[in-house]
Amino acid sequence: MKTFDIALKDILQSFRSFFLIGMGIFAPLIITALLFFAFGGFAGEASDLPVLKLGFVNLDQPAQGQNLGEMIFSMFTDESVSGWLAAARYPDEQAALAALDNRELGVAVIIPQCLSQAALQGGQGVVIKIIQDPTLTVTPSVVRNMIQSFLDGVYSGRVAYELISARSASAGLQATPETLTAVFAALQSWYTDFQRSLFHSPAAPLVLRLPSENADPTAGGMQQVIRLIMVGQMVFFSFFTAAYAMESILREHENGTLARLYTTPTPHMTILIGKLMAVVITVLLQAIVLILLSTVLFKIRWNAIDRLAVVVFAQVLAASGMGVLIISILKNTRQAGPVIGAGLSVTGMAGGLFTAANTMPDVLTTVSKFTPQGWVMDAWKNYINNGPTPAFLQSIAIAAAIGLALFLAGAFISRRRFA
Amino acid sequence: MTLPAIQVTQLEKAFGALQAVKGITFEVAPGEIFSLLGPNGAGKSTTISIISGLLAPTAGEVAIFGRSILREPNAAKAMLGVVPQDIALYPDLSARENLVFWGKMYGLRGAELKHRVDEILAVIGLTDRQKDRVSTFSGGMKRRVNIGAALMHRPSVVIMDEPTVGIDPQSRRHILDNVKDLNRQGMTVLYTTHYMEEAAELSHHIAIMDEGVIVACGTHDELIRLVGEQTRIDLRLNAEAEKVMAGMSAVKGVSKVTSLDGTVTVLVDDSNRVLPRLFEVAAQVSVRILSVDIQEPNLETVFLHLTGRALRD
Ligand SMILES: Nc1ncnc2c1ncn2[C@@H]1O[C@H](COP(=O)(O)OP(=O)(O)O)[C@@H](O)[C@H]1O
Ligand SMILES: [Mg+2]
Question: What order of strands is seen across the sheet that includes strand B80-83?
Answer without folding.
Answer: B80-83, B157-161, B188-193, B33-37, B205-210, B213-218
